[in-house]
């Protein structure tokens, strides 16, 4: 059975105190209420929160994710954070290729290839984001566009390494807009992604790869989205900032 995952992406929100309060609430609710053992709950925190949040999540069902990392393992890159540093926290997951980083920080396919390699070399799990703009969807090019994002950044990997990834499909038009992809739109794309992976790496790898949906996931739409056969969970932005909403989403399987 594939691993179901609900990952919160706090983005650039929360002071340290706010982040620790949110974490404590999530830890307690998950411990008391989450009975489904096939759901991995992940907190994707800003760098400055990671060490403190790790102390609260250590020994619980929660795992920790960073929201980015530099592609080089170390060196003179003022202001950057390396995979080695993240591993030392320790963090288990790292979100890469989020559309906000592609758009505002110019992350290229090539950079994402290097980041993926570096993370895997440090035994960190990349949560690789992909997704199309509204313009691309309206032209009917969304499937090809997203498949190319995967091909250009990831298809140099061996099947063994590809099997270590988590993919997050996030249509840009649904991020932070309150507009969620319909269940049919999400399933269509997730199935297309899985088939594309199967063509390259075979059915076993494709069937084992968790593919998360991101884009205005809320407690009231999570159940229907997660019921789609190829949707294995969510990458949750806004709703991950509210403990009750986030844990209710995690309980939607
Ligand atoms: O990484 C999370 C996504 O960008 C979704 O954000 P959102 O749930 O606020 O739409």
Automatic annotation (TrEMBL):
Predominant localisation class: cytoplasm
GO molecular function: triose-phosphate isomerase activity
Chain positions recorded as substrate binding sites: 9-11, 176, 216, 237-238
Biological processes annotated in GO: gluconeogenesis; glyceraldehyde-3-phosphate biosynthetic process; glycerol catabolic process; glycolytic process
This protein's record includes keyword Isomerase: yes
Pathway the protein contributes to: Carbohydrate biosynthesis; gluconeogenesis; Carbohydrate degradation; glycolysis; D-glyceraldehyde 3-phosphate from glycerone phosphate: step 1/1
SUPFAM superfamilies with a match to the protein in the record: Triosephosphate isomerase (TIM)
GO cellular component: cytosol
Cross-referenced InterPro entries: Aldolase_TIM (IPR013785), TIM_sf (IPR035990), TrioseP_Isoase_bac/euk (IPR022896), Triosephosphate_isomerase (IPR000652), Triosephosphate_isomerase_AS (IPR020861)
Keywords for this protein: Cytoplasm, Gluconeogenesis, Glycolysis, Isomerase
PROSITE patterns named in the record: TIM_1, TIM_2
Pfam family, any one: TIM
EC number: 5.3.1.1
UniProt-annotated catalytic positions: 98 (electrophile), 170 (proton acceptor)
CDD domains associated with the record: TIM
Catalysed conversion reaction: D-glyceraldehyde 3-phosphate = dihydroxyacetone phosphate
Functional note: Involved in the gluconeogenesis. Catalyzes stereospecifically the conversion of dihydroxyacetone phosphate (DHAP) to D-glyceraldehyde-3-phosphate (G3P).
Quaternary structure (record): Homodimer.
Record-stated family: Belongs to the triosephosphate isomerase family.
Protein name: Triosephosphate isomerase
Organism: Microscilla marina ATCC 23134
Lineage: Bacteria, Pseudomonadati, Bacteroidota, Cytophagia, Cytophagales
């Amino acid at each position: 059975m594939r691993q179901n995952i609900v990952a919160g992406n706090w983005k650039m929100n929360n002071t340290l105190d706010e982040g620790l309060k949110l974490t404590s609430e999530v830890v307690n609710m998950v411990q008391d209420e989450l009975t489904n053992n096939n759901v991995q709950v992940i907190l994707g925190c800003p760098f400055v929160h990671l060490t403190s949040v790790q102390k609260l999540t250590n020994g619980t069902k929660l795992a920790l994710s960073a929201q980015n990392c530099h592609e080089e393992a170390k060196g003179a890159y003022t202001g950057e954070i390396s995979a080695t540093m993240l591993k030392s926290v320790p963090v288990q997951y790292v979100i890469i290729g989020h559309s906000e980083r592609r758009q505002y920080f110019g992350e290229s396919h090539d950079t994402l290839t290097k980041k993926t390699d570096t993370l895997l070399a440090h035994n960190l799990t990349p949560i690789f984001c992909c997704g199309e703009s509204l313009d691309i969807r309206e032209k009917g090019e969304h499937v090809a566009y997203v498949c190319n994002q995967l091909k250009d950044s990831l298809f140099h990997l061996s099947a063994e390494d590809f099997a270590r990834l988590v993919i997050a499909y996030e249509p840009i038009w649904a991020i932070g807009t309150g507009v969620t992809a319909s269940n049919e739109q999400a399933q269509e794309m997730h199935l297309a992604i899985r088939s594309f992976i199967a063509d390259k790496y075979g059915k076993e790898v494709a069937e084992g790869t968790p593919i998360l949906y991101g884009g205005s996931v809320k407690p009231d739409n999570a159940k229907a989205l997660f019921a789609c056969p190829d949707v294995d969970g969510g990458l949750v932005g806004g709703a991950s900032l509210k403990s009750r909403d986030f844990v209710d989403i995690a309980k939607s399987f």
